[in-house]
Amino acid sequence: MPVDIKSPAGAPHARILGVGGYRPSRVVTNEQICQVIDSTDEWITTRTGIKERRWATAEETVAVMSLAAAGKALAAAGVEAEQIGLVVISTVTHLAQTPSLAAMVANELGALNAAAFDISAACAGFCHGLALAQDAVRGGSAEYVLVIGVERLSDLTDMNDRSTAFIFGDGAGAAVVGPSETPGIGPVVWGADGAQYEAIGQTFNWDVLREQTDIGFPALRMNGQQVFRWASYQMVPVAKRALEKAGISAEDLDAFIPHQANMRITDAMIKALKLPEHVPVARDIARTGNTSAASIPLAMERMLEEGEAPHGGVALLIGFGAGLVYAAQVVVLP
User: Fold this and answer.
1) 3-state secondary structure the chain
2) Residue 1: per-residue pLDDT
3) pLDDT surpassing 80 at residue 7
4) 123 classed as catalytic
5) What does each C-alpha distance from 50 to 30, 166, 204, 286, 295 come to in angstroms?
6) Largest Cα–Cα distance in the chain?
């Protein structure tokens, strides 16, 4: 005879309850970068909008930064670590194939009953994590989910590569997602364009080191023009679909928080979306650089702390990066 299996009892909706960030102590200015590469502060600022970035010290590991950001997010949410049922970390700079960084962080936090895993979705990773968190809360897999984006991109930066040496920064951002009686995270619009696979990646794969031990350490490489064109034009329809799926228009937004890749990409998206002037836009890249998976939660935290975006306001998030992959959704800010 057929056996009836109980369905998990989830929440009607999910929302971000708290956000927290960690910015490394070491500030690296454009002038310092230009001591190594042939460039100028004016050229870097004009091309990217970056004035400075944060690089981690030896003590500021991805685990240390994750724990600091997570602690702030939990405190802001009013949630205890033992209430967390799932920890999702997006990173490309946990330089151990296994075990996951999430398992380590969950244990150190005291989230001893939580499932934990890492995802590799590069600069779109935080938005991927939010989508997974919402599904877990609404599906009954976890009451509270901790989503972390963390990177030490300075570990993979080639200081002799004039095209990338000034772009990347380090940091961590975290969000606690939990149950809500009203919608707080809109439907995700996500995907991958594998035809652009070679646009961003490593200079060589780890397995090359088995045969060649004198080639140094792999670094990040990027075809800047290819990524700029793709992000500036292909991500606008993605953002529009996220708005449509959430049932709102650009006029309804209280903030636009895109991945902090390049100020010119952000400006191109603002123009193409016809974003109203009253909508504040995250420009955290000026002081933080491109921190990949950490960039959106770090920018969100700064906008809330500095009063640029209102608590409880509606924000459009969009991440895009190596793969090339993307994800966007509308959220209610904590």
Assistant:
1) CCCCCCCCCCCCEEEEEEEEEECCCEEEEHHHHCCCCCCCHHHHHHHHCCCEEEECCCCCCHHHHHHHHHHHHHHHHCCCHHHEEEEEEECCCCCCCCCCHHHHHHHHHCCCCCEEEEECCHHHHHHHHHHHHHHHHHHCCCCEEEEEEEEEHHHHCCCCCCCCCCCECEEEEEEEEEEECCCCECCCEEEECHHHHHHEEECCCCCHHHHCCCCCCCCEEECHHHHHHHHHHHHHHHHHHHHHHHCCCHHHCCEEEECCCCHHHHHHHHHHHCCCCCCCECCCHHHHCECHHHHHHHHHHHHHHCCCCCCCCEEEEEEEECCCEEEEEEEECC
2) 65
3) no
4) yes
5) 8, 8, 27, 4, 13
6) 75
Q: What is the torsion angle, in degrees rounded to the nearest 10, for the CA atoms of residue 132, residue 138, residue 140 and residue 146?
A: 40
Q: Which two tokens stand for residue 323?
A: 């793969």
Select from 124, 141, 332 the least CA-distant residue to 231. 124
* Catalytic residue of the set 30, 123, 127, 128: 123
d(C-alpha 190, C-alpha 177), whole Å: 19
Q: Which residue among 94, 128, 259, 262 is the active-site one?
A: 259
Indicate the range of 171-175, 212-216, 232-236 predicted with least confidence: 212-216
Domains of the chain, CATH where assigned: 13-180 (3.40.47.10), 189-332 (3.40.47.10)
Task: State mean pLDDT over 130-134.
Answer: 98
The yes-or-no answer on residue 94 being catalytic is no
**Residue of 30, 127, 128, 290 with catalytic role:** 290
- Reported as a single tens digit per residue, the pLDDT across 274-310 is 999 999 999 999 999 999 999 999 999 999 999 999 9
- pLDDT tens figures, 143-199: 999 999 999 999 999 999 999 999 999 999 999 999 999 999 999 999 999 999 999
Confirm whether pTM is higher than 0.90. Answer: yes
